[in-house]
Amino acid sequence: MKKNKGLKIAIVGATGLVGRTFLKVLEESFLPIEEIRLFATERSAGQFLEFKGTKLIVENVKQADFTKFDVALFSASKVASKEIVPSAVKSSCLVIDNGSYWRMHPNVPLVVPEVNFYQALRHKGLIANPNCSTIQLVVALKPIKMKYGLRKVEVSTYQAISGAGQKGIQKLQKELATGKTENILSKHPIAFNVIFHSIPSKYNFSEEETKIINETKKILEDKKLKITATCVRIPVLVSHCESVSIATKEEFYLEELEETLKSSPGIKIIDEPEKEGYPTPRLAEGTDFVYIGRIRRNPTEKNGLHLWVVADNVRKGAASNAVQILEKLWKENPEKIFNFKSLF
After folding, report:
1. Which of 93, 197, 231, 240 is catalytic?
2. Has residue 2 got a pLDDT over 70?
3. pLDDT tens digit string along 225-255?
4. Do 324 and 271 share a structural domain?
């Protein structure tokens, strides 16, 4: 297929929170879409979702014929990714997968367009979308790494409950409405509370913390990077916040470092704290930028730095990042969408 023809796109997991946001982001995109079809589990099949004023029926993914599509955007379960992605790629359909199953596979590029798009050009039919918290973190870290080097990163995340999908949103809304704890995700309430992600055992990291650590090293191509993370969920619907403490290899001036961040793709600086000017979840909601503020030195660390980093976890942390990968491929090397050697 040549660039002057439109794309035929499948969305797998279309009825979920990220799947529905795929549709919204694609409506805003410049991509020429010839056809778009929606797929989900048998339980969700038969629903209708709207795209550019047209109602589209959601089909059973078990009946999907991926030979009819150029691209499939996945936001499905680990099991679905494991079982369905290989057959889609074998059908010469490029897959961009928002799930976690393939992220750490050595032959699958893990891509954030502002950070390591060149890795997408090496794909074998499958490109992985990183974890939502990882995406905004590496967008902030990359320009600092390039100019000053990174010695150590410590991040604490304050994650909107939409990171758990629609069930997370429902848990918060029901608890606020009833005052009773909804026993999903956690035995603890999320309303007026803070809860952790699932932790496998005492003295261990949660799965979310492990994702951030491992994915950041892979994306920044620095296996020796000293990085640690603590992650919690907070009673906010949309946008993740991160308190990031960094130690650089080289000395820096704060004004110069701020200019470096400001001139980097995908970043907006809001840093006038004396006027209450700083990134907040509400400010980031509905946008695709990574917002940075509270830039200051860490006096306890040589070349130490503190940042406050905020982004919409459903858009930039998921749907928008995947669509941005596709947009950049279309603009810079469209043949990579249609012609590739399959990983499987």
Report:
1. 240
2. no
3. 999 999 999 999 999 999 999 999 999 999 9
4. no
* Of 93, 132, 231, 241, catalytic: 132
pLDDT tens sequence across 48-99: 999 999 999 999 999 999 999 999 999 999 999 999 999 999 999 999 999 9
Query: Do residues 139 and 283 share a domain?
Result: yes
State the CATH number of the domain containing residue 184. 3.30.360.10
5 pLDDT band, cuts 50/70/90, is: confident
Establish whether 240 is a catalytic residue: yes
241 noted as active-site residue: no
DSSP state of 17: H
Q: Is position 126 within any domain?
A: no
**Structure token digits, residue 129:** 């979308």
For the question of whether the overall pTM of this predicted structure is more than 0.85, the answer is yes
Examine the domain organization and report whether 156 and 34 are in the same domain. Answer: no
Does residue 138 share a domain with residue 59?
A: no
Amino acid at 106: P
SS3 for 33? strand
Residue 120, pLDDT > 80, answer yes
Count Cβ atoms below 10 Å from residue 177 Cβ, excluding itself.
9
Residue at 309 is within a domain? yes
Bridging pattern class, strands 71-74 and 94-97: parallel
Collapsing DSSP to helix, strand or coil, 210 comes out as: helix
How many residues are listed for the chain in this entry?
344
Q: Which two tokens stand for residue 81?
A: 């990714």
Determine the structural domain holding residue 97 and report its residue range: 7-101+318-338
Same domain flag for 271 and 323: no
The DSSP secondary-structure symbol of 53 reads T
Residue 228 and residue 154 in contact, taking contact as beta carbons nearer than 8 Å? yes
Please check whether residue 113 lies inside any domain of the structure. no
